[in-house]
Amino acid sequence: MAETPSVGELRAQGRRTLAGPAGGSFEADLLLSHVLNESRAWLYANDNSRVSTTDRDRYQGMLERRARGEPVAYLLGVREFWSLPFVVTPDVLIPRPETELLVAVALECLPKSSAGRIADLGTGSGIVAIALATERPACEVHATDISQAALEIARLNAHELAPGRIALHQGDWLAALDGLFDVIVSNPPYIDRQDPHLERDDCRFEPREALTPGPDGMAAIKHIAVGAVDSLRAGGCLAFEHGFEQGGASRRLLEKEGYVRIETRKDLEGHERVTLGFRPDD
């Protein structure tokens, strides 16, 4: 019987298979540690340990999928956001670091002792709603999505990370919600349908409806901005993520709809990424 492969041999195979993409060695070790349910530090210290043929085959299958471009987050089924581990599947967008800016902006609008109402529109895997719920435990948090599959992932994440804290609603943006809110947040689809970025990298594998609203990348943002002004309490805040070239259009839109104290924040790359505005005080 042939000897089963060692950890070191599989690590070397992983490096060769993923030699093209930046970070290939790191990704290969990440996948192997996932398959073996061991830390990467354990891998480094156990080069000569033998791996079962079942785990070898599973690892090789994951390497092949990654070599074809499938996102690591989907292969692992998890991605960290706001220092929390979120379950992700191809039914939802992969959490991105720049979206943490949206959470930070929303928190600025909610004092730590706040018991206000928050709405997260187009919640996907629930990352923004859950991050806000963990930071503002006295707040009432609602999250909507039109996709039932996405809501199932959000429900799973909420159960694990913020049990009993998130009210999930299926519907189009604000249509599923009642009452007024202190803060409304959204990371809506904002990429033009013809944008070549949709055919690159992780975007190729993500749900298209979560990336683009159609030929007009501002369509979803316009819908949200128009509806949110009447769903905010006096002095309440709307904040949303957008493309780095959409800051000016977003500010003009909020001004047209009667918002005040409008501003756009830049992400860590220096790109305009989140715009916010407030409903005027009565």
Which assembly state applies to the chains in this document?
single chain
Largest sheet: 7 strands, mixed
CATH topology of the largest domain: Rossmann fold
Average pLDDT rating: 93
Order of helices and strands: HHHHHEEHEHEHEEHEHEE
What is the strand content?
Answer: 15-25%
Number of strands: 9
CATH class value of the largest domain: Alpha Beta
pLDDT < 50 stretches: none
* Number of distinct helices: 10
Order of strands in the sheet with most strands: 5-4-3-6-7-9-8
Give the CA-CA distance, first to last residue: 80 Å
What does the radius of gyration come to?
21 Å
Described by the principal axes of the CA atoms, the overall outline is: elongated
In short:
With 282 residues, the protein is α/β, with parallel strands linked by helices. It is built from ten helices and nine strands.
Record the SSE blueprint.
Elements: H1 7-17, H2 24-36, H3 40-45, H4 53-67, H5 72-76, E1 78-81, E2 84-87, H6 100-108, E3 117-121, H7 127-135, E4 140-145, H8 148-161, E5 166-170, E6 181-186, H9 219-228, E7 232-241, H10 247-256, E8 260-266, E9 272-278
Parallel strand pairs: 3-4, 3-6, 4-5, 6-7
Antiparallel strand pairs: 1-2, 7-9, 8-9
Helix pairs in contact: 1-2, 2-4, 6-7
